[in-house]
Design the sequence.
Protein backbone atom coordinates (compact mmCIF):
# COMPACT_ATOMS: atom_id res chain seq x y z
CA UNK A 1 0.00 0.00 0.00
CA UNK A 2 1.05 3.59 -0.59
CA UNK A 3 -0.05 4.22 3.00
CA UNK A 4 -1.10 1.15 4.96
CA UNK A 5 -1.42 3.33 8.09
CA UNK A 6 -4.77 4.45 6.67
CA UNK A 7 -6.32 1.00 6.26
CA UNK A 8 -9.06 -0.07 8.66
CA UNK A 9 -11.23 2.50 10.45
CA UNK A 10 -10.79 6.23 10.16
CA UNK A 11 -12.96 8.22 12.56
CA UNK A 12 -14.67 11.17 10.84
CA UNK A 13 -14.73 13.33 13.96
CA UNK A 14 -17.61 15.53 15.03
CA UNK A 15 -17.09 19.04 16.40
CA UNK A 16 -18.72 19.21 19.83
CA UNK A 17 -20.30 22.57 20.69
CA UNK A 18 -21.28 24.10 24.00
CA UNK A 19 -24.76 25.50 24.56
CA UNK A 20 -23.47 28.94 23.52
CA UNK A 21 -22.36 27.35 20.19
CA UNK A 22 -18.65 27.75 20.93
CA UNK A 23 -16.32 24.80 20.30
CA UNK A 24 -16.18 22.41 23.26
CA UNK A 25 -12.53 21.33 23.42
CA UNK A 26 -13.06 19.33 26.61
CA UNK A 27 -15.69 17.24 24.84
CA UNK A 28 -13.45 16.94 21.77
CA UNK A 29 -10.66 15.53 23.96
CA UNK A 30 -13.15 13.05 25.42
CA UNK A 31 -14.30 12.06 21.92
CA UNK A 32 -10.75 11.58 20.62
CA UNK A 33 -9.95 9.27 23.54
CA UNK A 34 -13.27 7.45 23.11
CA UNK A 35 -12.67 6.54 19.46
CA UNK A 36 -8.95 5.80 19.81
CA UNK A 37 -9.47 3.62 22.87
CA UNK A 38 -12.35 1.99 21.00
CA UNK A 39 -10.08 0.85 18.18
CA UNK A 40 -10.10 3.53 15.48
CA UNK A 41 -6.95 3.25 13.38
CA UNK A 42 -6.72 6.95 12.54
CA UNK A 43 -8.48 10.28 13.01
CA UNK A 44 -10.06 12.39 10.26
CA UNK A 45 -10.27 16.00 11.43
CA UNK A 46 -12.35 18.75 9.80
CA UNK A 47 -14.37 16.56 7.47
CA UNK A 48 -18.07 16.77 6.65
CA UNK A 49 -19.08 15.32 10.02
CA UNK A 50 -17.22 18.16 11.75
CA UNK A 51 -19.70 20.77 10.42
CA UNK A 52 -16.77 22.53 8.75
CA UNK A 53 -18.94 24.88 6.64
CA UNK A 54 -19.98 26.58 9.90
CA UNK A 55 -16.47 26.83 11.39
CA UNK A 56 -14.35 29.96 11.08
CA UNK A 57 -10.80 29.71 9.77
CA UNK A 58 -9.50 30.38 13.29
CA UNK A 59 -11.68 27.61 14.71
CA UNK A 60 -10.41 25.18 12.10
CA UNK A 61 -6.80 25.98 13.03
CA UNK A 62 -7.58 25.63 16.73
CA UNK A 63 -9.37 22.30 16.26
CA UNK A 64 -6.55 20.86 14.17
CA UNK A 65 -3.91 22.11 16.62
CA UNK A 66 -5.83 20.70 19.57
CA UNK A 67 -6.41 17.38 17.82
CA UNK A 68 -2.73 17.05 16.95
CA UNK A 69 -1.66 17.83 20.52
CA UNK A 70 -4.22 15.57 22.18
CA UNK A 71 -3.70 12.60 19.86
CA UNK A 72 0.03 13.01 20.48
CA UNK A 73 1.12 10.44 17.92
CA UNK A 74 -1.15 7.63 19.16
CA UNK A 75 -2.70 7.23 15.68
CA UNK A 76 -2.26 9.03 12.33
CA UNK A 77 -4.31 12.12 11.54
CA UNK A 78 -5.90 13.00 8.20
CA UNK A 79 -7.30 16.50 7.68
CA UNK A 80 -10.15 17.58 5.43
CA UNK A 81 -9.51 20.38 2.93
CA UNK A 82 -11.74 20.79 -0.10
CA UNK A 83 -13.42 23.47 -2.16
CA UNK A 84 -14.87 24.46 -5.49
CA UNK A 85 -12.27 27.12 -6.30
CA UNK A 86 -9.12 25.24 -7.26
CA UNK A 87 -6.64 28.10 -6.92
CA UNK A 88 -8.09 29.15 -3.55
CA UNK A 89 -7.90 25.57 -2.29
CA UNK A 90 -4.26 25.26 -3.33
CA UNK A 91 -3.47 28.49 -1.47
CA UNK A 92 -5.41 27.31 1.59
CA UNK A 93 -3.56 23.98 1.76
CA UNK A 94 -0.18 25.63 1.35
CA UNK A 95 -0.96 28.01 4.23
CA UNK A 96 -1.98 25.21 6.63
CA UNK A 97 0.24 23.97 9.42
CA UNK A 98 0.43 20.31 8.42
CA UNK A 99 3.04 19.24 10.92
CA UNK A 100 2.43 15.63 11.92
CA UNK A 101 -0.48 15.16 9.49
CA UNK A 102 -0.52 12.01 7.34
CA UNK A 103 -2.69 13.06 4.39
CA UNK A 104 -5.38 15.44 3.14
CA UNK A 105 -8.93 14.29 2.41
CA UNK A 106 -10.31 16.50 -0.35
CA UNK A 107 -13.94 16.45 -1.47
CA UNK A 108 -14.95 16.84 -5.12
CA UNK A 109 -15.85 20.44 -6.00
CA UNK A 110 -19.48 21.11 -5.13
CA UNK A 111 -22.23 23.34 -6.53
CA UNK A 112 -20.51 24.33 -9.79
CA UNK A 113 -20.78 20.74 -11.13
CA UNK A 114 -17.53 20.30 -13.09
CA UNK A 115 -17.22 17.77 -15.90
CA UNK A 116 -15.09 14.66 -15.48
CA UNK A 117 -12.23 16.49 -17.20
CA UNK A 118 -12.72 19.39 -14.78
CA UNK A 119 -12.56 17.00 -11.82
CA UNK A 120 -9.39 15.44 -13.20
CA UNK A 121 -7.65 18.78 -13.72
CA UNK A 122 -8.80 20.08 -10.31
CA UNK A 123 -7.35 17.13 -8.42
CA UNK A 124 -4.20 17.00 -10.53
CA UNK A 125 -3.49 20.66 -9.78
CA UNK A 126 -4.23 20.28 -6.07
CA UNK A 127 -2.18 17.10 -5.66
CA UNK A 128 0.83 18.42 -7.58
CA UNK A 129 0.99 21.50 -5.35
CA UNK A 130 0.21 19.74 -2.05
CA UNK A 131 2.98 18.99 0.46
CA UNK A 132 1.02 15.91 1.61
CA UNK A 133 -0.65 12.98 -0.15
CA UNK A 134 -4.24 13.48 -1.26
CA UNK A 135 -7.18 11.15 -0.64
CA UNK A 136 -10.04 11.85 -3.05
CA UNK A 137 -13.54 12.09 -1.61
CA UNK A 138 -16.49 11.31 -3.87
CA UNK A 139 -19.86 12.03 -2.26
CA UNK A 140 -22.35 12.96 -5.02
CA UNK A 141 -25.28 13.11 -2.61
CA UNK A 142 -23.69 16.23 -1.12
CA UNK A 143 -21.77 17.74 -4.03
CA UNK A 144 -24.12 17.25 -6.97
CA UNK A 145 -21.52 15.48 -9.13
CA UNK A 146 -20.36 11.88 -9.27
CA UNK A 147 -16.72 11.23 -10.08
CA UNK A 148 -16.70 8.12 -12.24
CA UNK A 149 -14.49 5.09 -11.75
CA UNK A 150 -12.72 5.99 -14.99
CA UNK A 151 -11.75 9.44 -13.67
CA UNK A 152 -10.64 8.03 -10.32
CA UNK A 153 -8.47 5.40 -12.01
CA UNK A 154 -7.01 7.99 -14.35
CA UNK A 155 -5.99 10.15 -11.38
CA UNK A 156 -4.62 7.14 -9.51
CA UNK A 157 -2.46 6.19 -12.48
CA UNK A 158 -1.31 9.67 -13.46
CA UNK A 159 -0.72 11.48 -10.16
CA UNK A 160 1.68 9.89 -7.71
CA UNK A 161 0.59 12.12 -4.83
CA UNK A 162 -3.00 10.83 -4.98
CA UNK A 163 -2.99 7.75 -2.75
CA UNK A 164 -6.62 6.75 -2.35
CA UNK A 165 -10.31 7.56 -2.35
CA UNK A 166 -13.14 7.75 0.14
CA UNK A 167 -15.99 6.48 -2.03
CA UNK A 168 -19.48 7.49 -0.91
CA UNK A 169 -21.34 7.16 -4.21
CA UNK A 170 -23.30 4.21 -2.81
CA UNK A 171 -22.63 2.39 -6.09
CA UNK A 172 -20.98 -0.95 -5.36
CA UNK A 173 -20.37 -1.59 -9.08
CA UNK A 174 -18.49 1.70 -9.38
CA UNK A 175 -16.44 0.92 -6.28
CA UNK A 176 -15.67 -2.56 -7.63
CA UNK A 177 -14.38 -1.01 -10.87
CA UNK A 178 -12.06 1.28 -8.90
CA UNK A 179 -10.72 -1.67 -6.92
CA UNK A 180 -10.24 -3.71 -10.11
CA UNK A 181 -8.63 -1.10 -12.36
CA UNK A 182 -6.71 1.24 -10.04
CA UNK A 183 -3.10 0.41 -9.09
CA UNK A 184 -2.95 -2.30 -6.42
CA UNK A 185 -1.48 0.07 -3.84
CA UNK A 186 -4.32 2.59 -4.22
CA UNK A 187 -6.42 2.89 -1.02
CA UNK A 188 -10.15 2.35 -1.53
CA UNK A 189 -12.12 3.37 1.56
CA UNK A 190 -15.87 3.11 2.00
CA UNK A 191 -17.64 6.39 2.65
CA UNK A 192 -20.79 4.59 3.78
CA UNK A 193 -20.76 2.76 7.11
CA UNK A 194 -23.41 0.29 6.00
CA UNK A 195 -21.42 -0.76 2.91
CA UNK A 196 -18.10 -1.26 4.70
CA UNK A 197 -18.04 -5.06 4.82
CA UNK A 198 -19.23 -5.34 1.20
CA UNK A 199 -16.56 -2.90 0.02
CA UNK A 200 -13.84 -4.73 1.92
CA UNK A 201 -15.09 -8.07 0.61
CA UNK A 202 -14.59 -6.67 -2.90
CA UNK A 203 -11.00 -5.76 -2.00
CA UNK A 204 -11.36 -2.35 -0.36
CA UNK A 205 -9.14 -1.35 2.54
CA UNK A 206 -11.50 0.06 5.17
CA UNK A 207 -13.83 2.95 5.90
CA UNK A 208 -13.86 6.56 6.98
CA UNK A 209 -16.68 6.23 9.44
CA UNK A 210 -19.33 8.32 11.16
CA UNK A 211 -20.66 5.41 13.22
CA UNK A 212 -17.32 4.84 14.94
CA UNK A 213 -17.90 8.14 16.78
CA UNK A 214 -20.86 6.58 18.58
CA UNK A 215 -20.03 2.87 18.71
CA UNK A 216 -16.24 2.66 18.44
CA UNK A 217 -15.56 -0.77 19.96
CA UNK A 218 -18.41 -2.53 18.17
CA UNK A 219 -17.81 -0.93 14.78
CA UNK A 220 -14.01 -1.26 14.94
CA UNK A 221 -14.43 -4.97 15.69
CA UNK A 222 -16.53 -5.37 12.53
CA UNK A 223 -13.78 -3.82 10.43
CA UNK A 224 -11.07 -5.82 12.24
CA UNK A 225 -12.84 -9.06 11.27
CA UNK A 226 -13.20 -7.88 7.66
CA UNK A 227 -9.47 -7.02 7.53
CA UNK A 228 -8.77 -10.61 8.55
CA UNK A 229 -10.92 -11.86 5.68
CA UNK A 230 -13.56 -13.17 8.10
CA UNK A 231 -16.47 -11.66 6.21
CA UNK A 232 -19.20 -13.94 7.53
CA UNK A 233 -18.19 -13.13 11.10
CA UNK A 234 -17.94 -9.44 10.20
CA UNK A 235 -21.50 -9.46 8.88
CA UNK A 236 -22.69 -11.25 12.03
CA UNK A 237 -20.94 -8.62 14.18
CA UNK A 238 -22.46 -5.80 12.13
CA UNK A 239 -26.04 -7.13 12.25
CA UNK A 240 -26.86 -5.75 15.76
CA UNK A 241 -25.48 -2.35 14.67
CA UNK A 242 -27.41 -2.10 11.42
CA UNK A 243 -30.60 -0.42 12.64
CA UNK A 244 -28.68 2.07 14.76
CA UNK A 245 -26.30 2.92 11.92
CA UNK A 246 -29.26 3.54 9.61
CA UNK A 247 -30.85 5.73 12.28
CA UNK A 248 -27.69 7.84 12.45
CA UNK A 249 -28.46 9.12 8.95
CA UNK A 250 -32.26 9.40 9.05
CA UNK A 251 -32.13 13.16 9.63
CA UNK A 252 -28.71 13.81 8.16
CA UNK A 253 -25.14 13.82 9.38
CA UNK A 254 -24.02 14.76 12.03
CA UNK A 255 -27.55 15.22 13.41
CA UNK A 256 -27.98 11.50 14.09
CA UNK A 257 -24.55 10.79 15.51
CA UNK A 258 -24.76 13.81 17.82
CA UNK A 259 -28.12 12.48 19.05
CA UNK A 260 -26.55 9.09 19.81
CA UNK A 261 -23.55 10.66 21.53
CA UNK A 262 -25.85 12.80 23.68
CA UNK A 263 -27.72 9.69 24.79
CA UNK A 264 -24.37 8.03 25.52
CA UNK A 265 -23.34 11.01 27.68
CA UNK A 266 -20.39 12.10 25.54
CA UNK A 267 -21.51 15.55 24.31
CA UNK A 268 -24.25 18.20 24.46
CA UNK A 269 -26.74 17.93 21.60
CA UNK A 270 -25.81 21.22 19.91
CA UNK A 271 -25.45 21.88 16.18
CA UNK A 272 -24.90 25.13 14.31
CA UNK A 273 -27.54 26.39 11.92
CA UNK A 274 -28.60 25.50 9.33
CA UNK A 275 -28.37 22.09 11.03
CA UNK A 276 -30.66 21.40 13.99
CA UNK A 277 -30.79 18.63 16.62
CA UNK A 278 -32.68 15.39 16.03
CA UNK A 279 -36.41 15.30 16.66
CA UNK A 280 -37.81 13.77 19.84
CA UNK A 281 -39.01 10.83 17.73
CA UNK A 282 -35.50 10.04 16.51
CA UNK A 283 -34.06 10.53 20.01
CA UNK A 284 -36.51 7.97 21.40
CA UNK A 285 -35.74 5.56 18.58
CA UNK A 286 -32.00 5.92 19.18
CA UNK A 287 -32.45 5.40 22.92
CA UNK A 288 -34.41 2.20 22.21
CA UNK A 289 -31.82 0.84 19.77
CA UNK A 290 -28.90 1.60 22.08
CA UNK A 291 -30.71 -0.14 24.93
CA UNK A 292 -32.04 -3.06 22.87
CA UNK A 293 -28.70 -3.92 21.26
CA UNK A 294 -26.58 -2.97 24.28
CA UNK A 295 -24.58 -0.40 22.31
CA UNK A 296 -23.61 1.79 25.27
Sequence:
Amino acid sequence: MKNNKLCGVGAAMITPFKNDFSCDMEALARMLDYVIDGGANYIVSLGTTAETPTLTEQEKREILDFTRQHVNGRVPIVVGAGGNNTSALIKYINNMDLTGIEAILSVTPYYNKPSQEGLYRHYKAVAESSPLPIILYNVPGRTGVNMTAETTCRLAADVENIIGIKEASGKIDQISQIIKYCPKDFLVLSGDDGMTVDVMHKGGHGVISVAVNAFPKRFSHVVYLAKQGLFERANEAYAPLHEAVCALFEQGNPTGVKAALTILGQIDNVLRLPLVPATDLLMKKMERLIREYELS
